Amino acid sequence: MAKQVTVRKVRRGGGTMPRSARKTVRVREAETLTGAAALSIAPSIPESGVPAKVDLRNLPACIQDIVVAAQDTDPGPPDPIDYHQLRGRLEAARPTLPPIYREAVLQPFLIILDRLGPQGFSEVLIRDPQREGEAGLLLDVAHSILQNGENYQLVATDAFEEVVSDLYDGFLSAEDRRGVKPPERGIIPPLVKWGAPQFGPYTWPVDVTSEVLNLEAGIVNLPPAQARAGLLAWSAVGHEVGGHDILHADIGLPEELAEAVFQRLDAEGFGALAEYWSDRIDETASDVLGILNMGPAAGIGLVGYFRGLDLAFGGEGILRNGGPSEDPHPADILRGFLAGSVVSRLRFSQARQWANAIFAEVEKDVRPDELVLADQRVTPAQARRSADVVADVLTSHKVAALEGHALGYIQNWRDQDEKKMQDMVRLLISGVGSLTPSITKGIYAAHLVAAGVVAALTAEADVRRIFDRMIRLLKQMHDQNPAWGPLFIRHRGNVVPHFVYSQPPRVV
């Protein structure tokens, strides 16, 4: 193989208070309800609009939920290592895939298997006993088809697929790219699978699957435990494992963004930090894309997720301050500052309040003596300011690869998204039935996952019950997704009519 095959690993690794007991108080606009001083203040979510304050009082419970998921070593289904049995199971799974995935994934994969034959298949497995290279890729593609076809974790698998599909739809669909030509690389959303908890979340990006196996989609993996727990991981990981393909859908986009980040930081006197950030453009821009797509929930979700992972593996339960040279991700603390800075630039009315809430959480974890990035010691002020510069560049810099548009133009979080998200918060907290067509009009997975995070963060929320409801509703949403129907549809956002005239609503 001309290109080394590597796994792109991501970072390491219900009820509410009764109405009669609720009360509201006046606090300053920028104030966040956290800590002991806020324990007597219950949430107040109006019937319309957005809540008056950011409520993070249940963050410790959400972090503990991450710990439970991270320490669960369920390996998922056994690897399909019998060649003839695998071949038969794949054929049996064919009818369960939409036509576009049969053509883009199943058929080219079967061609590869036929070329390998039993002997070649066995040789691949022997050459990669740890399943970290070509054997891992081969088996993961098989798992993604089989788990879908054989109904492994049926509800959670479809929910997971819907979240990943929505991430792609939000940046690559024709509806969201008005004025921007289609990407040079026609990307369809990855297939998803569960397994390999020792590796944590990871992705085989499409540039690897296409070169090695001639597929037209990537493969995304989550540990099986996250089908049952780890709510914050769904907001903080989806964009990470999908960002690489999105960034590389437009030829030259990552390189342009890296150069813009370097030039801006260098011009503002950050020296070596310019190289540190630009060298990590894939992971950095993926964080930005996730927040542009899912709003502030993705930002605070990232903070809680990383704290939970640190606690699960013997740490203090804080954002790590150090950034080793060999780590392709920016240090946790930088990513927290980046999240706050990106949220502050979102186009909804509570952006500043949410940004302040995220900054307040990140500042709690700053350890000045440990702030060493690629062997360079920096101050907390330098870390925060550099992250703000990077956020500004990645949300607003107009790049040639996007016909002179910025990432923040193609995707953003607006008041209408916040309103939809709050509608879903009420649905998750109340536990009321199904998603009816009247409820789901204009609602996407990003709104629902964001609502799950916000609902779970609310004081006294039952995280597990909210997680279960979120998964069930995402499954319903997936069942209604036209991209998983009988037509060849790459993104549900492509199936949107453009009207010449919008009729005003009737006044009755």
Notes on the protein architecture:
The chain has helices at residues 59-70, 83-93, 99-127, 134-149, 154-172, 206-213, 231-236, 238-249, 253-267, 272-278, 281-294, 296-312, 332-344, 351-364, 380-396, 407-410, 415-430, 437-440, 445-457, 463-479, and strands at 8-9, 191-194, 202-204, 219-222, 372-373, 376-377. It has 508 residues and is mainly alpha-helical. The protein has two domains: 52-72 and 154-180 and 225-486, no CATH class; 75-153 and 181-224, no CATH class. α1 (59-70) crosses α12, α3 packs across α4 and α5 (154-172) runs parallel beside α8. The longest helix has 29 residues, at 99-127. The chain starts with 7 loop residues before the first strand and ends in a 29-residue tail after the last helix.
